[in-house]
C-alpha cells in the first residue's frame, strides 16, 4: 500500500517534458503586471530535478541606469518541480517573499502576481 502513496513533497507539478510550456505560461501571466520577465530553465540536478529561475524587474527597461537590470527594482526566484517557490535575490526597495510550496503552476502564478502587485 505505501508504494502507491506519494507525499506532497515528491509530487512533481512540472517535469522536463512540459517545463518550457509552463514557463511560457508564467511569463505571459507575469508580463501583464511587470514590464520585464525572463525565465531560465535549469536542470543542474538532472532531468528529474528541473527548475525555473524567474527574474523580474518592476521597472521599464528604458529607466534602468546604464541599461543594466541590476540597476532596477528586481527580484529572482527559484521554482522547483516539487512546487517550492523561493526568493534568492531581492532589491532593497522590494518586500521579501516568504518561501512557500504551491500545489500547481496556477497557484504559483497567483502568488507571484499578488507579490508583484504588492511590491509596485
In short:
22% of the residues lie in helices and 25% in strands.
Strand and helix layout:
Layout: H1 19-30, E1 36-42, E2 51-57, E3 74-80, E4 84-90, E5 100-101, H2 105-119
Helix pairs in contact: 1-2
Question: Helices and strands, in N-to-C order?
Answer: HEEEEEH
Distance between the termini: 49 Å
Report the count of strand segments.
5
Q: Report strand order across the widest sheet.
A: 1-2-3-4-5
Mean pLDDT: 92
The biggest sheet, with number of strands, parallel, antiparallel or mixed sense and barrel status, is: 5 strands, antiparallel
Calculate Rg over CA atoms.
15 Å
Number of continuous helical runs: 2
Point out poorly predicted stretches: 1-6
Strand content: 25-35%
Structure explained in plain terms:
The protein has 120 residues and is an alpha+beta fold. It has one domain (13-119). Helix content is 22%, strand content 25%. It has 2 helices and 5 strands. It has helices at residues 19-30, 105-119, and strands at 36-42, 51-57, 74-80, 84-90, 100-101. The protein has a 5-stranded antiparallel β-sheet, with helices on one face. The model is unreliable at 1-6 (pLDDT under 50).
Keywords:
single chain; 120 residues; alpha+beta; disordered N terminus
Amino acid at each position: 500500500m505505501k508504494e502507491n502513496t506519494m507525499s506532497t513533497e515528491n509530487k512533481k507539478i512540472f517535469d522536463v517534458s512540459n517545463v518550457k510550456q509552463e514557463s511560457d505560461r508564467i511569463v505571459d501571466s507575469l508580463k501583464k503586471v511587470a514590464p520585464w520577465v525572463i525565465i531560465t530553465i535549469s536542470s543542474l540536478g538532472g532531468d528529474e530535478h528541473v527548475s525555473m529561475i524567474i527574474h523580474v524587474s518592476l521597472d521599464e527597461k528604458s529607466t534602468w541606469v546604464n541599461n543594466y537590470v541590476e540597476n532596477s527594482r528586481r527580484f529572482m526566484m527559484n521554482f522547483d518541480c516539487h512546487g517550492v517557490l523561493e526568493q534568492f535575490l531581492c532589491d532593497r526597495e522590494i518586500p521579501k517573499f516568504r518561501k512557500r510550496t504551491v500545489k500547481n503552476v496556477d497557484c504559483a502564478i497567483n502568488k507571484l502576481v499578488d507579490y508583484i502587485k504588492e511590491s509596485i
